[in-house]
Design goal:
This protein has about 230 residues and is an alpha/beta fold. A five-stranded mixed beta sheet has the order 2-1-3-5-4, sandwiched between helices. Strands 6-7 form a two-stranded antiparallel ribbon.
């Protein structure tokens, strides 16, 4: 099986670093793809992205300044199959990538990866060490096999990461008035974001249409967050 492709470029606001691909994720070619993994639901409700995301949305994350890679690129059925030599070599390669691409922040998705790079002192949350100026953050593993941290703890850790990195609101909607240029309209999600007062000067008919669209998209976003958070 092939390893997963890196999503890296200069100027990332956040680089998310997994442990190594599971065989299921490697087979489908998507990060954290196994059903039941909490990565994508936790990311969706964290405030780091502009809309709910799922396996296959790696390019969308990349466009929004979030990169993806793994400490070890060889897929395996279990994390216990990764040898100590692979962790050491992967940690050295990862440090080189961080120094090359200079993301503003790096989050290890799983303490095993953080400790492979930073040593056994690494604990969940913001780390005292930096690499090439990047702030480092350790998240608990979102795998359902991780019995040490429950769903709420994983979701809370992603929200804490969003507070560090900075939240991202919904993407603006653009409509075109007859005989006029494009007018930018904000998506006013009342629960999560305040509408921009500048987004106002449109004709009544267009305003009604945009309002319906805003309500539909805003409710869909909130509903996805509520469903991912569970009871």
């Amino acid at each position: 099986m092939r390893p997963l492709a890196d999503f890296l470029r200069p100027g990332l606001r956040l680089l998310l670093v997994g442990l190594n691909p599971g065989t299921y994720s490697a087979r489908v070619g998507r990060y954290f793809a196994r059903p039941g993994n909490l990565f994508w639901p936790a990311l969706s409700q964290s405030g780091l992205v502009s809309r709910p995301v799922e396996p296959g949305d790696e390019s969308l994350l990349h466009e929004q300044g979030i990169g993806l890679t793994d400490v070890v690129h060889r897929p395996s059925a279990s994390i216990d199959e990764v040898a100590a030599r692979e962790w050491r070599e992967g940690a050295a390669v990862l440090r080189g990538k961080i120094e090359r691409y200079r993301p503003a922040s790096v989050a290890f998705v799983g303490l095993r990866g953080a400790r492979a790079v930073l040593g056994d002192k690494a604990e969940p949350g913001l780390q005292s060490e930096t690499i090439a100026g990047a702030r480092l953050f350790a998240l608990p593993s979102p795998s359902r096999r991780n019995a040490a941290y429950g769903r709420e703890a994983v979701f809370a850790a992603f929200r804490e990461l969003a507070t560090l990195v900075g939240r991202r609101g919904p993407d603006p909607v653009r409509v075109r008035s007859p005989g006029q240029g494009a007018v930018q309209i904000c998506i006013p999600n009342a629960d999560l974001h305040r509408p921009d007062p500048k987004c106002a000067r449109i004709r009544p008919r267009e305003k009604a249409r945009v309002k319906r669209r805003d309500r539909k998209e805003g409710c869909a976003f909130r509903r996805a967050v509520e469903e991912s958070a569970g009871p």
